[in-house]
Amino acid sequence: MNNNIGIYIHLPFCVKKCNYCDFLSSPADNAVKELYLRALQGQIASFYEEEYNRTHPVTSIYFGGGTPSLVSPEWIKKLIDTVRKYFNVEPDAEISMEMNPGTADEEKLNGYIEAGVNRLSIGLQSSDDEILSALGRIHTCADFLDIYRRARRVGFTNINVDVMSGLPDQTLEGYEETLDLVCALGPEHISAYSLIIEPGTPFEKMKLNLPDEDTEREMYHLTRRKLAASGFERYEISNYAKEGFKCRHNLLYWSGNDYLGFGIGAASYDRGVRYSVIKDRDKYMNLAFKDKWGDLLENIEHLTDDDRKTEYCILGLRRTEGISLAGFAGRFGQRLTSVYRTPIDKYTSMGLMELTGDRLRLTEAGIDVSNVILADFML
Ligand code: SF4
Predict the structure, then answer these.
(1) CB-ligand 1 contact for 23 (6 Å cutoff)
(2) Are residues 351 and 363 in contact, defined by beta-carbon separation less than 8 angstroms?
(3) What CATH code is carried by the domain that includes residue 361?
(4) Cα of 18 to ligand 1 centre, how many Å?
(5) 313 vs 255, 317, 351, 355, 367, CA distance in Å?
(6) Is the pLDDT score of 109 beyond 90?
(7) pLDDT by residue (tens digit) across 71-92?
(8) 370 CA → ligand 1 middle, Å
(9) 134: CATH
(10) Residue 110 located in a structural domain
(11) 182 CB less than 6 Å from ligand 1?
């Protein structure tokens, strides 16, 4: 276990809301964006602690949203510079940014590289324009191809593409076309999620023609087979990477390292305390300009030892390499196999988990029912 930390910066702006989205984001004019970004700079600066910096190097910065590519390269640079000024950022830190097709031209992409961004995450979701339109996305597949090629042209060498399965009117063949198209482009990383209908979204109220459970399962297996054949290693339930391109930021989350979140709704895990930033954008900006940093935080939870063990296992078991027995013992001073004897015995005998050498991991069959298994690791 190391003390590396990741920094997440939430940029909550979108051109318009997608029909399935419950992320904290909305359209905003330039004046609001400017105020929010200034407040964000203030919040980042307010965290400064000399001793913490000495012992906690930052190995990744992640701009998520929302649509971070609606923020200018000048502002992205200011935010990166602010993080560098107030934290101990490693020179080769991974700096990722989410991007939506249709929101950046070559000049802007160049600007992001110059600002220090070295990893892009582009949201395609589907290669079928009708499905994209039903999702409420603002782009077509051609827009995605355009931005992907431009990103390569300006020099991005680490690109993730997001795809989704289980979408309304999506067939197995249609999903396969999406995977084929993405694999042919040869990105370094693919995140493949299945649609979840979230409460409060337009999709919740709409009558949707969703793939049945068997088709969804086939889509899931197809993803694994196709991406393996194209040289991607699955290293987490929904994430696939070419060799050397696992997302360092997400690996920190799944390894139980600390992370700090700035901007509305952003979550932190900071020396055993979990908390998040308030969700109300206007209130956030107002409090930030009054320097009331403590009032920006909510849901503050001091984790007990049992909470930390649960979190370590649930996050660690999402990775295909699983959890290290020595890592658990080093951190908690107890044997993993003693604390979790019952679920380990149960699921290894069912062939859903395996214990080999120093590692406990889910098998392929176990990943299929991971929600049920992980629930049994709650203390
Ligand atoms: S672009 Fe992303 S964050 Fe914005 S509304 Fe669509 S899914 Fe949500």
Answers:
(1) yes
(2) yes
(3) 1.10.10
(4) 5
(5) 9, 6, 18, 14, 14
(6) yes
(7) 999 999 999 999 999 999 999 9
(8) 27
(9) 3.20.20.70
(10) yes
(11) no
pTM for the full predicted model: 0.95
For ligand 1, whether the C-beta of 80 sits within 6 Å is no
Q: Please tell me the predicted confidence (pLDDT) of residue 2.
A: 84
Residues 219 and 323 in one domain: no
Residue 295 lies in a domain: no
Q: What are 123's strand-pairing partners? A: 162
How many percent of the chain have pLDDT more than 70?
100
Atom of ligand 1 nearest to the CA of 16: 5
Atom of ligand 1 nearest to the CA of 136: 6
For residue 66 and ligand 1, the question of a CB distance below 6 A is answered with yes
Task: Look at ligand 1, atom 5, and give the residue with the nearest C-alpha.
Answer: 17
Return the structure tokens found at 143. Answer: 């827009």
CA 153 to centroid of ligand 1, rounded, Å: 25
Does 248 lie in the same domain as 110?
yes
Give the position, in ligand 1's atom list, of the atom nearest the Cα of 98.
Answer: 2
**138-176 pLDDT per residue, tens:** 999 999 999 999 999 999 999 999 999 999 999 999 999
Pocket of ligand 1 contains residue 127 by CB under 6 Å: no
CA distance linking residue 86 with residue 89, whole number of Å: 9
Tell me how many domains the chain contains.
2
